[in-house]
């Protein structure tokens, strides 16, 4: 799934995964911090407190951070998080954490969304 052609779709709709709930992608917020820390701990991914604070408060012209949320029970739950450096159009995500017990294919969706958005922003800046 590539977002290079339509990066606006990043925040405009929900996505069905091969397994798991439908997810929505949105910009990460500082209030997501505890949920992202819990997700990283659950998945065994070490994200330091300072690193996460930097990712969530970075200049949006330099870095993009998004969360994937799903309605689980009756609550919006963070099931994925990713960030990418926008300075390099071909960059790989600097952070990528997904709930593998609840979702399947979310890592690919999140990675594609981050890379596609970074490439689209780089093309727009170059024009």
Molecular structure report:
The chain has helices at about 35-45, 50-55, 105-125; strands at about 15, 25, 65-70, 75-85, 95-100. The chain is α+β, with helices and mostly antiparallel strands and about 130 residues long. It has one domain (about 15-125): 3-Layer(aba) Sandwich (Aminopeptidase). The protein has a 5-stranded antiparallel β-sheet, with helices on both faces.
Task: Chart the SSEs and their pairings.
Layout (H helix, E strand, L loop, with lengths): L13 E2 L7 E5 L5 H11 L5 H8 L6 E10 L2 E11 L9 E4 L7 H21 L1
Antiparallel strand pairs: 1-2, 2-3, 3-4, 4-5
Superfamily (CATH H level) name? Gcn5-related N-acetyltransferase (GNAT)
**CATH arch. level architecture:** 3-Layer(aba) Sandwich
Structural class: alpha+beta
Mean pLDDT: 86
- Strand coverage percent: 25-35%
The helix count comes to: 3
Features:
3 helices, Aminopeptidase, alpha+beta, disordered N terminus, single chain, 127 residues, globular, 31% helix
Question: How would you briefly describe this protein structure?
Answer:
With 127 residues, the chain is α+β, with helices and mostly antiparallel strands. The chain has one domain (14-126): Gcn5-related N-acetyltransferase (GNAT) (Aminopeptidase).
